[in-house]
C-alpha cells in the first residue's frame, strides 16, 4: 500500500512516498480503506518538519480521512460502512490518512453523513468541521444574524473559506479579513459582504477600539486576535481556533470587563463525539455544497510536498483534497 512516511534519525528529518503493509499498521479495532484526506496546516508542518507536530516516528501524516470500513472488530461499524475521522492525534501520534489503509480506534470514527460523498466530506475536512464548531460556539453564546456582522480572519484559508460560506448562508453579514487582494472576488462569491485588508488587523492596536462586529471567527491569533477582541461589540463572542500568525495574545482585559466580550476557545482534535455529530449534521444542512468546488482543489499524494511548502508560506487558498486511493 502506498503511503507518505515521515521519519527522523540522527536529527535528519525525511518525508517520502513508500510502500507499507497491513502488518505495519498500528493497533486499532477498525481498518478503513482510505479514499480521501486533506491538506491542513498541521499536515504541512508534519511533511516539511517545520514544527515538531509529529510525536512518534515513523509516522504517516494526515489528520483526517474518509473512506470505507474493510475490517472491523467493533460492534459499531461493519465492513462496507462509510466513515470519516478528524483529529484524535491521528497523523501526530497515530498513523493518519496519507496511506491507502488506516487502522484506528472505533471511538475516533463517526458515520459518514448521507448528504456527502467521501470526496465532499474531505472537501470540508477538518478545516470545515472546525469552522462549523466555531459557528456553534457563537450560537451557544447567543449570536444570530440579528446580532450584527461577524468578522472572519484568515478568510481565504480552509477554516475561513468554509466559515464565510456557512455564515452567509445562515444570513449573517460577513466581514472577511485577508491580505490577498486578488481573492476579493472569491470571498464575495462565498458570501462576504465586506473585505478588510489584513494589514489593518495584524499590527499592534489600541486596547479598545470602535465597536465594529458582534462576533468573530479567528484562525490567526497574535495581534490579529487582539484587534478583533478590541473591536467586538458589547456582549459579543469571538471563537478562536488557530494560530497561523502566532500563539501569543498581546491583548488587555478591557474588552472582557468593559464590554462583556466572550473569548470562546474551539478545539477540533478531542471534541466529544456528540458535538462532532452535531457539527457534521449542521454542515449537511448549512453549507452550500455547490461552493465546495469553488473553494477546493484535488491533488494526489505526490503533489503534497510542494503544496505543503506553499501552504506554510500562505500561498494556497481554500481546501486541498488529497486523493489517496489509487
Structural write-up:
The protein has helices at residues 41-48, 118-140, 158-170, 184-190, 199-202, 222-230, 254-259, 273-286, 292-295, 304-312; strands spanning 2-9, 12-19, 30-38, 64-72, 82-86, 101-104, 109-111, 150-152, 174-178, 194-197, 213-218, 232-240, 262-265, 296-300, 319-323. The chain has two domains: 2-112 and 292-323, Alpha-Beta Complex (Quinone Oxidoreductase, Chain A, domain 1), CATH 3.90.180; 124-265, 3-Layer(aba) Sandwich (Rossmann fold), CATH 3.40.50.720. Helix content is 30%, strand content 27%. The model has no long low-confidence stretch (mean pLDDT 96). The chain contains ten helices and 15 strands. The strands form three sheets. Strands 3, 4, 5, 6, 7, 14 and 15 form a seven-stranded mixed sheet that branches. A six-stranded parallel sheet has the order 10-9-8-11-12-13, sandwiched between helices. It has a two-stranded antiparallel sheet with strand order 1-2. The chain is globular.
